[in-house]
Design brief:
Protein name: Aminodeoxychorismate lyase
Strand order of the largest sheet: 8-7-5-13-12-9-10-11
Organism: Aspergillus viridinutans
Radius of gyration: 19 Å
Number of strands: 13
InterPro entries: Aminotrans_IV, Aminotransferase-like, BCAT-like_C, BCAT-like_N
GO molecular function: catalytic activity
Largest sheet: 8 strands, mixed
Oligomer: single chain
Number of helices: 7
Distance between the termini: 27 Å
Length: 276
């Protein structure tokens, strides 16, 4: 089976993070139990400190000292920088923060699709939206700093989406990225969560006393991205980390997906091509 190794010249990419500006979020945080929510400002910027820390770790990984210096400012100053890009603070926006090796930060702002703000906090069984169809990439991707950190070097993700016939970011579909060992790394634009199961490698015995969370997400050692909603889901105790292989997936099983723009939403695994 073919494998893909992400690579990019060090001069020609930027580090990025995408997040939601949601005007309803501050009021929601005041009315919900949010002990694990990381933003002391309770700002409209979803999981803002996690995004700032994620960008800082990427800058440090690539040795970008000027970018790291910019990202070491306090979160309130960082929020004020983002505020200058928001055209209307009464509407939700999708922000794409882009930082180059010299520490120049630009923010691309586009209208965000409306969502139930509750879906930003944790998955809810009350979420009755139509599940996204989740397929598995037919090729394997070799983990690298470009899969651990989010950058503009995303050809391997774009290619996976094209192989899965996903043509638009608005398509309710996702494709799972797989490493050469057959382990799920992540989704092309999301973190994925699966029903907890026995691990073939560790022979974990599940019972009511030691089962832990009902959901699992791949560990970073599988090669996927250190996503902000992934970090939040772990902090809230929604899921635990456990490696999962393509062979362990079940056609038709439900899963959850998340990212920094849409929050948490349902998915359904599709392993077999639908009949015409």
């Amino acid at each position: 089976m073919a494998t893909i190794t992400p690579s990019q010249d060090s001069e020609s990419f930027q580090i990025i993070s995408s997040l939601r500006y949601e005007p309803a979020l501050p009021e929601l945080l005041r009315t919900q139990p949010t002990d694990a929510y990381p933003d002391p400002l309770r700002s409209p910027y979803y999981l803002l400190p996690y995004h700032q820390e994620r960008l800082l770790k990427a800058a440090e990984c690539f040795g970008w000292s000027k970018a790291a210096t910019f990202l070491q400012q306090d979160v309130e100053s960082f929020a004020e920088h983002l505020n200058s890009f928001i055209p209307d603070r009464t509407k939700p926006w999708r922000l794409r923060i882009v930082i180059d090796r010299d520490g120049t930060c630009t923010v691309e702002v586009n209208a965000a699709l409306p969502i139930d703000p509750l879906s930003l906090l944790l998955p809810s069984e009350m979420n009755q939206t139509t599940p996204w169809l989740v397929t598995v990439d037919s090729q394997r991707t070799v983990p690298s700093p470009f899969t651990t950190h989010k950058t503009t070097s995303r050809d391997h993700y774009t290619a996976a989406r094209l192989r899965a016939k996903i043509t638009s970011p608005q398509d309710p579909a996702e494709v799972l990225i797989v490493n050469p060992h057959g382990q799920i790394m992540e989704g092309s634009i999301t973190t994925a969560y699966f029903r907890r199961r026995k691990s073939a490698s560790t022979q974990v015995k599940l019972n009511q006393e030691d089962a832990g969370p009902a959901w699992i997400t791949p560990p970073l050692s599988s090669g996927g991205n250190a996503g902000t909603t992934r970090r939040y889901a772990l902090a809230r105790g929604f899921c635990s980390e456990q490696a999962i292989t393509v062979a362990e997936l079940i056609d038709g099983e439900e899963c959850w997906l998340s990212n920094g723009v849409r929050g948490f939403f349902r998915g359904r695994i599709l392993l077999d091509e639908p009949k015409p």
